[in-house]
Amino acid sequence: MNIGIDKISFFTPHLCLDMAELAEARNVDPNKYLIGIGQSKMAVIPPTQDVVSMAANAADKILTPEDKEQIDMVLFATESGIDNSKSGAVYLQRLLGLKHQVRVVELKQACYTATAAIHFAHGHIAMNPDSKVLVIGADNARYGLATKGEPTQGGGAVAMLISRDPQILAIQDDATYWADDVMDFWRPLGFDEALVDGKYSTNVYLEFFKHVFKEYQDNTGFDISKFDAMLFHLPYTKEGFKALKIAIEDADPTVAARLTHEFENVRRYSNQIGNLYTGSLYLGLLSLLENSTDLKAGMRLGLYSYGSGAQGEFYSGLLRPGFDQNIEHEAFQKVLDARKQLSVAEYEDVYNSRIKISDKTRKLDISTDPAKFVFAGVEDYQRQYVVK
Ligand code: COA
């Protein structure tokens, strides 16, 4: 039975920042951000969006009444959780109008967990072929103002419907994974911003990729020529490019050129959004689907997932017949182009205006946020969501 990604959609808020302007404000050569890190724009998350509202905005675009009837599990992957106890998934049951006969869980292992969720969903559907599982990867990638991590912020949510006979990608049973307890990136309890040893993290990411990709090749007998595109978790797009260079170092030049060409389609949206944490790898899938003109049914995509702390995994998926029937060429580019570009001062104001843990009751102005689902503030520490 083929099981995999039946539908995929993405949401990022209506605000962004130009990386060249940020570089100027921080007295940095703009090419460091544009070329050295590989980011041209960054999503700015207003206080009226959090992981729940962003997830609802992403999922709402793809779910039909029939899907809602069949979904019996919601797996919410995030490392920007909004509660120490209640899962982000249970808010979605109400906001999206899902039935009550549904299992709702939040999962955490840094940026890796949407991949874990897809595999858990795969197992669930293998046992319950008529089920559908909603997998969410939603995050607000947030570092301190004027820190080294600042140019690698971003945010948004990817929603994927996992089912049998999927329209888009059949997940293969070929995953290799590798875990080790390291401190490359973490966010202690009570901290709003992540702490990161960026150079170390990049090295761990690349070392884990070597481990899992070698084991994958040993297990399957497939070499790099078997892949039609390689997708990577993209904390910043240059990091994925470094992993791609490792993957293709011994490849035939035609294969290397093809994979390098497709990687530009993979990273196009991330380049204009920044880090998405859990959703990043799957934004790359959407970006490839909407921007490549060379994809065909049956092609094999390689996916490298990484979550600091750290977990790495490599697996593959095969494009399904008719994978492109609901994919509109460059559709999301139009959404990105329509965003409002903030000045650096406006971005800093937005950055500083989010709800704090200590806010017991605070109402947010939702009138300037054009999204359907918004976070309206807290009342007695209870989060308030509004459907416009
Ligand atoms: N033109 C072109 N490239 C330039 C440049 C210029 N003027 N100035 C610098 N660069 C290049 C550097 O050579 C370097 O390239 P390399 O990585 O290929 O060596 C790159 O830009 C970054 O410069 P560097 O000095 O290493 O940057 P930094 O110390 O400010 O750190 C990050 C950059 C990405 C490590 C930092 O932003 C970070 O830690 N981000 C968080 C990453 C993260 O979240 N990781 C965990 C999740 S997986």
Explained architecture:
With 388 residues, this protein is α+β, with helices and mostly antiparallel strands. It folds into two domains: 225 residues, Peroxisomal Thiolase, Chain A, domain 1; 156 residues, Thiolase/Chalcone synthase (Peroxisomal Thiolase, Chain A, domain 1, 3-Layer(aba) Sandwich), CATH 3.40.47.10. The protein is 35% helix and 26% strand. It is built from twelve helices and 18 strands. The strands form four sheets. Strands 1, 4, 5, 6, 7, 8, 9, 12, 13 and 14 form a ten-stranded mixed sheet that branches. Strands 3-2-15 form a three-stranded mixed sheet. A three-stranded antiparallel sheet has the order 16-17-18, with helices on one face. The longest helix is centred in the middle third of the chain and has 23 residues. The termini are far apart. The mean pLDDT is 97. The structure holds coenzyme A (COA).
> Which ions, cofactors or small ligands are bound in this entry?
coenzyme A
Uncertain stretches: none
Number of domains: 2
* The CATH homologous superfamily of the largest domain: Thiolase/Chalcone synthase
| Number of helical elements | 12
User: How many beta-strand segments?
Assistant: 18
Beta-strand share of residues: 25-35%
Could you name the CATH class of the largest domain? Alpha Beta
GO biological process, one term: acetyl-CoA metabolic process
Organism: Ligilactobacillus araffinosus DSM 20653
Keywords: Transferase
GO molecular function: hydroxymethylglutaryl-CoA synthase activity
